[in-house]
Amino acid sequence: GATDDSNNNLLTGDVFYYDETSTSTDCYKWHFATDGQTVISGGKHEYNRKGVCRKCGARNSFGVNYAFDTTDNCYYVADNKTYADSEVTILEEYDDGVNGVYPVTYVQNSAFASNAKIVRVNLPSTVTSLDGGVFLNCPNLEYVSMTGVKEMPVVAIKRPYGTVATNNNFLNCAKLSVVIVGKEFDLSGQQFKAWGITEFVGVDIYVDGDEKTSKINAVSNGQNDLLTGVILY
């Protein structure tokens, strides 16, 4: 392997493999030109916003763990409690190399719970459900975009990984200050609360829609103690 150590501190780039049949769209491969000296390489991956390389079609999970739901033919965000970066970006579609290309539609219960590294989360419009406790006790979470989620009722649901309750998605996220939602979203059923925390900021809700068509409902119901910010349309 090309592991870096005290003697190889310049080996921090990428590794390209020789393939005499490779082309300019074969990322991380190379071959010699007809002169036997000039190196021709497909270069590195160039990912689009869906995490798909524009040249070779390879997919990048960006460090996020996904799993396949064989009942609903979709992918979901699996257990990511040890996710190491401050920003989480979920793909619209995924391909595990076995089941094919399908949309990512929900996030597993407690997927990122108690992760102190996460600050920002970007969920695509294909993600319509948070399965409960997703960001429970994430003390540094500040920003969440989830325009595909229309509602978050507290119910029991059966998933491939078990039966769970869908509550507590943002419980004890005391630094949460920005949540971006679609115009169909109803906030009233979900917990934005900080138990035993006296110092917390208010959550400003950014609605992707105008005030007349928005269905948002942010009335405090005893569970929404963090919703002390403003709503922007």
Can you offer a commentary on this structure?
The protein is mainly β and 233 residues long. It is built from no helices and 16 strands. It has a six-stranded parallel β-sheet with strand order 6-9-11-14-15-16, with no helix packed on it. It starts with 16 loop residues before the first strand and ends with a strand. The model has no long low-confidence stretch (mean pLDDT 86).
H/E element order: EEEEEEEEEEEEEEEE
Uncertain residue ranges: none
Q: What percent of residues are in strands? A: 25-35%
Structural class: mainly beta
CA-CA gap between termini? 52 Å
The amount of helix comes to under 10%
How many E strands?
Answer: 16
Morphology:
elongated
How many helices in DSSP terms?
A: 0
List the helices and strands and how they pair.
Elements: E1 17-18, E2 29-32, E3 39-41, E4 66-69, E5 74-77, E6 87-89, E7 93-95, E8 101-107, E9 120-123, E10 129-130, E11 143-146, E12 156-159, E13 162-165, E14 178-182, E15 204-208, E16 231-232
Parallel strand pairs: 1-2, 5-8, 6-9, 8-10, 9-11, 11-14, 14-15, 15-16
Antiparallel strand pairs: 2-3, 4-5, 7-8, 12-13
What is the compact description of this entry?
With 233 residues, this protein is an all-beta fold.
Key features of this structure:
233 residues; mainly beta; six-stranded parallel beta sheet; five-stranded mixed beta sheet; 16 strands; 0% helix
